[in-house]
Amino acid sequence: MKKHILIVPGDGIGQEVTAVGKKVLDKIAAKFGHEFTYDSALIGHVAIEATGNPLPEETLQKMKSSDAVLFGAVGHPKYDNDPTAKVRPEQGLLKMRKELGLYANLRPIKLFDELLSASSIKPEILKGADILFFRELTGDIYFGEKGRKNNGDTAFDMAEYSRYEVERIARKAFEAAMTRKKKLCSVDKANVLETSRLWREVVQKVALEYPEVEVEHQFVDATAMLLIKDPCRFDVVVTANLFGDILTDEASQIAGSMGMLASASIGDGTGVYEPIHGSAHDITGKGVANPLASILSAALLLDISFGLKAESDALINAVDKVLKAGFRTRDIADSQTASNMVLGTEAMGEQVLNNI
Ligand code: NAD
Ligand code: IPM
Ligand code: MN
């Protein structure tokens, strides 16, 4: 198979982990006889530095004309600590999602058995946890009208959802539930928010088309608690943009670390594959970032954008073998891990490469 992949590392550890992600894609291509060609493009802080624009037109065009995008992360402490900055790296990410119509963000929370002890949650509660989040990605408070009034002393962000937007993400989630345990939890705040009441109304309606799927509706605050209390009760979870952002960072602790969680952002055009984590200023440049989220994002890319299930499984199995062999990055090591088994970003990537 011939495919063109755009690598968009972005900022901070995005650079470090996508370099590994690209290497594993290369190895898969060689092993399975595919021809992957690559290009790269700027986004975020590095794009602002080079062009003044967090999502240069050239990057957007390259994204649109590629078969898939392997994405790193955006963000820089300079902006995090300056609330008045008008141009920000994150604007590039949000504009990319909107322009590419990436309305569905799939965030699988799968615990590798070997990492049971890496989590702060008790192993007996965690064992068997396997959740697929569908986070709506192009609506909600992220994209509504925002601004200041009263001479800047009052700020507002408008949350908005249309029936159409809720329906299409709900349908994607139901379709996925049909291929899994046929359980779907829709998360909202319908006891308070009008957008959530529309959300619940639409999900209830779509549910009628999937009578085999067992549906529950939970409020977001209760869900935050249930994820830690009993993660195994969940199968597919569908929720709005902001709730999905927060709940999946929380859920990363089910999988052991932010460095383990991959995601697929899909819509009508090019799919974008990225770890759920950010640019991680605290560890940037130290060579210790966990590259497995980027590797697992590459696995999602192979499966979802290219339909290469065997190749995708080969990557996931390689990760599994490396973890079984006892290798860890710092974030997933525990008190039992011998210091010679704690690897840096590149060395962990090499171990995965050797096991493909
Ligand atoms: P973060 O996800 O970057 O980091 C949170 C914590 O998790 C940090 O302690 C970090 O060291 C750790 N961590 C994250 N990824 C890791 C990995 N692969 N291996 C080991 N440890 C890892 O979130 P933050 O610190 O809140 O944000 C930092 C910057 O990233 C901000 O500018 C933010 O806007 C941006 N951000 C971008 C994205 C994205 O591009 N998709 C996502 C989240 C945050
Ligand atoms: C994510 C990030 C982004 C989001 C930020 C950086 C805009 O946290 O991809 O999860 O909130 O969606
Ligand atoms: Mn996030």
From TrEMBL:
Task: Give the residues the record marks as binding substrate.
Answer: 97, 107, 135, 221
Which PROSITE patterns does UniProt cross-reference here?
A: IDH_IMDH
Annotated cofactor note: Binds 1 Mg(2+) or Mn(2+) ion per subunit.
Tell me the cofactors it needs: Mn(2+); Mg(2+)
| Gene Ontology CC annotation, any one | cytosol
Family matches, as SMART domains: Iso_dh (SM01329)
- Domain Isopropylmalate dehydrogenase-like, chain residue ranges per copy: 4-352
Q: Where is this site: Important for catalysis?
A: 142, 189
Cite the entry's keywords alphabetically.
Amino-acid biosynthesis, Branched-chain amino acid biosynthesis, Cytoplasm, Leucine biosynthesis, Magnesium, Manganese, Metal-binding, NAD, Oxidoreductase
Principal EC category: oxidoreductase
Query: What reaction does this catalyse?
Result: (2R,3S)-3-isopropylmalate + NAD(+) = 4-methyl-2-oxopentanoate + CO2 + NADH
* InterPro entries reported in the protein's UniProt record: IsoCit/isopropylmalate_DH_CS (IPR019818), IsoPropMal-DH-like_dom (IPR024084), Isopropylmalate_DH (IPR004429)
Say yes or no: keyword Protease present.
no
PANTHER family in alphabetical order:
3-ISOPROPYLMALATE DEHYDROGENASE
- What does the record give as the function of this protein? Catalyzes the oxidation of 3-carboxy-2-hydroxy-4-methylpentanoate (3-isopropylmalate) to 3-carboxy-4-methyl-2-oxopentanoate. The product decarboxylates to 4-methyl-2 oxopentanoate.
* Name of the protein in question: 3-isopropylmalate dehydrogenase
